[in-house]
Write a structure and sequence with these properties.
Layout (H helix, E strand, L loop, with lengths): L2 E14 L4 E3 L2 E3 L4 E2 L7 H14 L4 H4 L12 H14 L3 E10 L9 H12 L6 E6 L5 H4 L3 E12 L1
Helix pairs in contact: 1-3, 3-4
The protein binds magnesium ion.
């Protein structure tokens, strides 16, 4: 019988001037980007933590520490590909993943499918296995005030 595991990931990054906005591996035209050691792709960070969580393999802070200059300005989608390699090396297959971005702006729907494809390609899975939604918090809290972006991800992994 195959072994199934679920994993949950969550991340938040603050908006900052002079930064590109990269979400789901896609650079989006926006007046501000997200602050962070890497490219601060909050959606990909949540997805990586969900996968590592399902593998019981720690978190992205352990694998790609922000104290390590090697990861300064790193492309998070490239790190996701590394997590995909770890996943396969451990005998795991990604059965399904769903994600949500929490932000007031920009609008995600024009970029949704490109982001899903970009993340699926990094993981070597069909884009049908990666879901993405976006929601606002109706003006409430830090994301509601437009101070940053939060993301959540849940995955199901299987190993036979
Ligand atoms: Mg992060």
């Amino acid at each position: 019988m195959s072994e199934m595991r679920i994993g949950l990931g969550y991340d938040v990054h603050a908006f900052a001037e002079g930064r590109a906005l990269v979400l789901g591996g896609v650079e989006i035209e926006h007046p501000v980007g997200l602050a962070g050691h890497s490219d601060a792709d909050v959606l990909v960070h949540a997805l990586m933590d969900a996968i590592l969580g399902a593998m019981r393999a720690g978190d992205i802070g352990a694998h790609f520490p922000d104290t390590d200059a090697a990861w300064a300005g790193a492309s998070s989608i490239g790190l996701l590909a590394r997590v995909g390699d770890l996943m396969r090396a451990g005998g795991w297959n990604l059965v399904d993943a769903d994600t949500v971005l929490v932000l007031e702006s920009p609008r995600i729907s024009p970029h949704r499918d490109t982001m899903r494809i970009r993340m699926a390609e990094a993981l070597g899975v069909d884009a049908a296995r990666i879901g993405l939604k976006a929601t606002t918090t109706e003006g409430l809290g830090a994301t509601g005030r437009g101070e940053g972006v939060a993301a959540q991800a849940v995955v199901l992994l299987e190993r036979s």
